[in-house]
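queue> holo job accepted (molybdate ion)
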Amino acid sequence: MLEKRTPISVGEAVCNLMKFASPGLIEMVALELAHGRYLSEDLVADQDIPSFDRSPYDGFAIRSEDAVQATKDHPVTFEVIGKIGAGSVYSGKVGPFQAVRIMTGAEIPKNCDAVIMLELTSQYEENGQTYIDIKRSLKHGANISVQGEDARKGMILAKRGTYIHPGIMALLATFGYSQVPVARKPVIGIIATGSELLDVKEPLVPGKIRNSNTYMILSQIQRAGGEAKYLGKLSDDLETCYSAVKASLNQVDMLITTGGVSVGDYDYLPAIYEKLGATVLFNKVAMRPGSVTTVAHLDHKLLFGLSGNPSACYVGFELFVRPIVRTSLFNGKPHLKKEKAILGESFLKPNPFTRFVRAKLTYDEGKLMVSPSGFDKSSAVSSLAEANALIVLQGGTRGYDKGMYVDVLLLEDHQGSEWPW
Ligand SMILES: Nc1nc2c(c(=O)[nH]1)N[C@H]1C(S)=C(S)[C@@H](COP(=O)(O)OP(=O)(O)OC[C@H]3O[C@@H](n4cnc5c(N)ncnc54)[C@H](O)[C@@H]3O)O[C@H]1N2
Ligand code: MOO
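queue> job finished
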């Protein structure tokens, strides 16, 4: 007699699973290779930015008190006593009615407290000496980028777990991180099961299909921030699959298999878990696609049994594998980010289980719009091409009309969300 599986809610499944989520290890990477990684420490300013008062303009540094009387009709004349470019420091003393030619980014000379832009002065030479006329008064501090105006020493500029994007790269470089402390990528093995599977380069023959899940998951792992390890594809044979799964566990932090988790005669994953002595956390979730998603653990290593059906496999990864990966990358918001969007077309199918519709999210005149991205079946691959979101339709509902607000989960967002959504 076949074992009857009892579906649990997505929320319950996530909660059971997240008990096994833990932060991972740390490593150092060269700054040039840090893009796309996750910070393993808070990024704290160890100095003020800028670290000295500097000029935001090409012009002349002066003492503002000398220009108090300057007007269009009564310009005040300054003697130009020197010149400084960015990177240089003016070491001389600037006296009354003296000015120093200064370039953008150069440090303000000690006695000066204002800068006048080059184009607001008139310059002339007399007996080999350069003079400028200033026709307006300047306030103390005028046109000076003051030390610490951008960031103050001690400020936290990015939290541990932050995704390293170009802006973070700029800050890391600013604070001198030639080596960056990042979360080590968890190594995730992928095994595809199914006697019908061909390698990508093989020609199609009757009854066979190409193994697309492996490459889809590989890319999902990379998008989540992990390191994918391709462990091949296997025919539906219990002993072969058991040996491969067992052997792979020494090489990876977690393992994903696809296919073989349902109730078919060749669905061997449940038997493999039993033979390994793994504890099954759940093997039926009240969701569609991906109801057969199974998760087990063995010695605190997670084994994800994702569906063979591509869309079901895709959704299973995003809901269950992603938060585990992101937690290991120190991300405090490891789940897909949730938003509300307006449904661009009606979706009238009944939803006995919570449905995650692969969807395309767009902005239309400032409004967030969402529509299914194509054929909605768990076996579909075509709808994945344009999917950048999942529409969430709660179980026990039906009939979502165009124009209604629906929940959407963002697939390409680096920030993520806390649980519960
Ligand atoms: N009697 C029942 N049959 C099925 C049930 C059920 O409850 N009772 N559940 C159905 C649901 S829902 C799903 S989803 C699938 C899940 O099946 P498996 O996860 O065990 O996957 P397979 O049977 O191995 O394959 C399903 C489908 O996917 C194709 N496939 C498999 N691997 C790949 C791959 N690497 N790349 C691309 N496509 C792949 C495979 O050829 C099948 O067409 O079970 C239902 N059946
Ligand atoms: O797991 Mo299936 O995808 O519910 O159709």
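queue> The chain has four domains: 10-24+185-328, 29-47+156-183, 59-134, 337-410.
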